[in-house]
Amino acid sequence: MIVVTTPTGQIGGQVVGQLLNQDARLRLICREPTELSHDVRSRVEVEMGMSKAMAQGMTDMARAKSEGLDNAEPRTPDATTPTSFRQWCGNTLQPAILHPS
Ligand SMILES: NC(=O)c1ccc[n+]([C@@H]2O[C@H](COP(=O)([O-])OP(=O)(O)OC[C@H]3O[C@@H](n4cnc5c(N)ncnc54)[C@H](OP(=O)(O)O)[C@@H]3O)[C@@H](O)[C@H]2O)c1
């Protein structure tokens, strides 16, 4: 078996393309399997994989959720500010970057 990581990238995609023409069993490890074509997915084994930091982040989020650390409050105009992300970037983030204190 040949294992290929990052098969969705330029280089990984070329490697997979070449290996598909060989008589080899392929296992592809990627972050988002749906990024692979249906044809490729039907001819290989696919596993989801991610960096250690990303896996740690996902684990931390799952633990926080199971321990009730998010308040799960639905977003409403009363529960959140009316400021959009774009507005916050323009009003707060941009001045902070251009004129750091
Ligand atoms: N192409 C060249 O001519 C060339 C020349 C010299 C060196 N390189 C180096 O070779 C490497 C690959 O090049 P490329 O052209 O194939 O790059 P690319 O097309 O940008 O593909 C990057 C691949 O890495 C994956 N990836 C990125 N960040 C990741 C992360 N944090 N965890 C897991 N997977 C991650 C991407 O997955 P997603 O699809 O999920 O984002 C994608 O499959 C790069 O480091 C590049 O600098 C490339």
What would a concise description of this structure say?
Helix content is 46%, strand content 13%.
Could you characterize what this model shows?
The protein is elongated. It has a 3-stranded parallel β-sheet with strand order 1-2-3. Helix content is 46%, strand content 13%. With 101 residues, it is of the alpha/beta class. The protein has helices spanning 10-20, 38-43, 52-66, 85-98, and strands at residues 2-5, 26-30, 45-48. NADP nicotinamide-adenine-dinucleotide phosphate binds next to helix 1.
Q: Could you tell me which ligands this complex binds, including any ions or cofactors?
A: NADP nicotinamide-adenine-dinucleotide phosphate
Number of strands: 3
Largest sheet: 3 strands, parallel
H/E topology pattern:
EHEHEHH
Query: Could you say which structural class the secondary elements and strand pairing correspond to?
Result: alpha/beta
As a percent range, the share of strand residues is 5-15%
Which ranges are low-confidence, i.e. pLDDT below 50, for 5 or more consecutive residues?
none
Averaging pLDDT over every residue, what do you get? 88
Number of domains: 1
List keywords for this structure.
101 residues; binds NADP nicotinamide-adenine-dinucleotide phosphate; alpha/beta; three-stranded parallel beta sheet
